[in-house]
What we know:
- By secondary structure, the chain is an alpha/beta fold.
- The protein is built from 13 helices and 14 strands.
- It has helices at 12-22, 41-54, 79-82, 105-115, 129-137, 141-144, 167-171, 173-180, 191-194, 201-205, 213-224, 239-248, 295-306; strands at 2-8, 27-34, 63-65, 120-124, 147-151, 186-189, 198-199, 227-228, 231-232, 236-237, 253-258, 260-262, 273-275, 287-293.
- An eight-stranded mixed β-sheet has the order 3-2-1-4-5-6-14-11, sandwiched between helices. It has a two-stranded antiparallel sheet with strand order 7-10.
- Helix 4 packs across helix 5 (129-137).
- It is globular.
- It starts with a strand and ends with a helix.
Amino acid sequence: MQKVILDVDTGIDDALGIMLATESEELDILGITTVSGNVSLEQATRNTLKVLQLVGKENEINVYPGAFEPLIRKKFHEHRVHGNDGLGEALTDMELHARPSSKHAANFIIEQVHRYPKEVTLIMTAPLTNLVHVLKQDPTFARDIKRVIFMGGAAKTQGNVTPVAEFNIYADPEAAKIVFHSGIPLTMVGLDVTMKTLLHDYHVDELKGSRYYDFIHKSTQYYMNFRQFDEVITACPMHDPLAVGVAIDPTMIQTESLYVDVETESSLCDGQTVCDLRFQINQKENMDVALDVDSDRFISMLLHRLK
């Protein structure tokens, strides 16, 4: 089993990512950390506890709240996509039984990585703020972390919150810039691949009769009804679940080692991940970038495990 920590800002696709992780015997989930992103830190923490309760893991996996705001910017949430509560109102009636840990997310991550040097993979499906707090506290962290797989950015495709920026990077680009230059082994799972892994209505219908069908049906319908670029999205991109899937089976994606930086000072391109695809910047590669994915294999695995 691979030791992992999930770092989330639990909206709809984060929830599906948590569910996939808890249903995957390959992963030993040491804990889940939360951060401000799709929703506030408080709401993300509450949503994470609800999802763990839904899957029956509320007494086995602890939740550690982290950063309540970006490093220097104002908070930016995505209620348009995920609803006021972040879960498309799918679990509003659930009464919580568990409480989050009093330990800060950064302290938990540092503790676990040094407890299991070179064994822990951090799966980040949110803005990278918590990891910067880790790096500020512990300059030796990069030496002991196995790898960080993060959902964020776009190499060859357009953004999903501006024409060029993906949400997780846009929400805290300064944090992403620090992480990208930290020397940590990184895998970028961005929009180039997540926009190819689409969950359609007919996929959700395959889950009828399963314990998760009601939640998945209600939450993904909210997601699918979101209008963007004057078009109706008729499927749910599995952004965050794919990052979990890559931890389970890295062969699902094809990557290239590239130099990637983040724009933080542009009025038009703020939050853009600039990927040196043609090796023109003359900088050393700093991460593996996912450029293609076996989407059918991933969706099949996701449905099989959620059944």
